[in-house]
Design goal:
Elements (H helix, E strand, L loop, with lengths): L1 E7 L1 E6 L5 E2 L17 H10 L7 H4 L6 E5 L12 H15 L7 E5 L9 H16 L5 E3 L8 E6 L5 E5 H5 L2 E8 L1 E2 L3 E2 L2 H8 L3 H4 L5 H4 L12 H17 L4 E7 L5 E7 L1 H16 E5 L3 E9 L1 E2 L2 E2 L5 H15 L3 E10 L14 H8 L14 H5 L2 H9 L7 H14 L3 E5 L4 H5 L4 E3 L2 H13 L5 E3 L10 E4 L19
Parallel strand pairs: 1-15, 3-21, 4-5, 4-9, 5-6, 9-12, 14-22, 15-18, 15-21, 18-19, 19-20
Antiparallel strand pairs: 1-2, 7-8, 10-11, 12-13, 16-17
Amino acid sequence: MKFDFEYGQGTMSAELPDNTDIFIPGETVKDPDHIPEDQLEAAYLESLAHPIGMPTLTELAGPGKTVTIVVPDRVKGGEQATSHRKLSIKYILKELYAAGVEKKDILFIISNGLHPRSTEADAKAIFGEELFNEFWHTGQIISHDSEDQEHMVNLGNTHRGDPVCMNKYVFECDIPILIGHVQGNPYGGYSGGYKHSATGITNWRCIASHHVPSVMHRDDFTPVNGGSLMRNKFDEISMHMEEKMGHPFFCCDAVLDTQSRQIAIYSGYAKEMMPISWKLADKRTYVHWAEKKYDVLVFGMPQKFHYGDGMGTNPIMMMQALSAQVLRFKRVMSDNCVIICASTCNGYFHDERWPYLRELYDLFQHDHMNTLPDMNRLGEYFATNEEYIRKYRYTNAFHPFHGFSMMSCGHIAEMNTSAIYIVGAEEPGYARGMGLKTRATFEEALEDAKKKYVGQEPNILALPMTFKKAAVHLCMKDPAQDCMDEYGHRHPCCC
């Protein structure tokens, strides 16, 4: 069979055996039905009128009340006219205004966390022309700055000892609203809910309590699930915020399909709302499909996806992307599984976006750095580098600690595979410097893997569109054959 896999700005062809299986999100197994466009307004109004576990916005709001609406950056959710961000904000504003809240008392914060602070163009894409024009020019749309000490508040530690620091505008307002997306995420199962607040409006020290090897390399983290220590820390940090604020966040989350269309909308108190939203999201995200374990996973990596242009060529970001797929597919991978992935791997680091990753890559080649976790001891040194911090604050670069969270994830691919082949690399030394094997073509890589790792009749799974469509967490058709369920419970027979 002939396949075209993502590669750089286009695709790369591969001829694989006729018995190769194929999985494409939203196509191989259909998503649950999304809400038709003409029924979206009614669905939002119904959700907002009956929030789970807390009063309505009408009951909470009133003249003189201040509102901060926290909205994800461009990494998550769609940007179509009917996107969850745009519609939820529209109906929330309508209810707030009706309850007496004044426009001047509303602030929007883009919750980029350690991601690049949003540009004007980003804000326009996130909010749409109408909302953007209504709030941008009055300074009522801002992007979270985790290094703006005047507008961060230290809330002490959780009972576990994790430091909690949050955006002061959110902390001090009367009604903090979180707009979230319940989409599959390799870090803890789902975006949205308490993950949103625990990562989007905090600082690097708070994030360093969970995006580190001591949490991400535990056996409860892989495969992805909603019961890991990381997920528990998200909840604890966000509930600590609520305790210190003296009131909960009001959440409005949407379960989204492969095309970022709303399957369902849930509003209310995250602690009670998340488990309910996850039940439906599980049907779309944890897809019980595989009838056998796979010895070889085959996919391709474009240059630009998820975190931005250069993710598919920057060697450290490539490792994170490979590991994210291991987290999603571990349940269907054999013990000796091999990954074959296309990447131009051309040395394009996109230094403006990741100004410190070239330095981290070079350091990884020296000073007894044998595995990526060995780099973690440099985390605070980079995270407090004033020049890199200035680039995060003022030039739309990633925060320097973000690279360490990427490396913590990046090691998971090595932990859970026999080998990883990068095919089509223009500068293959970058891949080899990360411990990856290199071959010119998919066919050459497969032949080498057969000789060394998987035998002459491997089970092969082709994954076209892996980075172009909202991913799923692939599972065995018989849930009893999964090594772990959706909530971190292990099956003794499979572990």
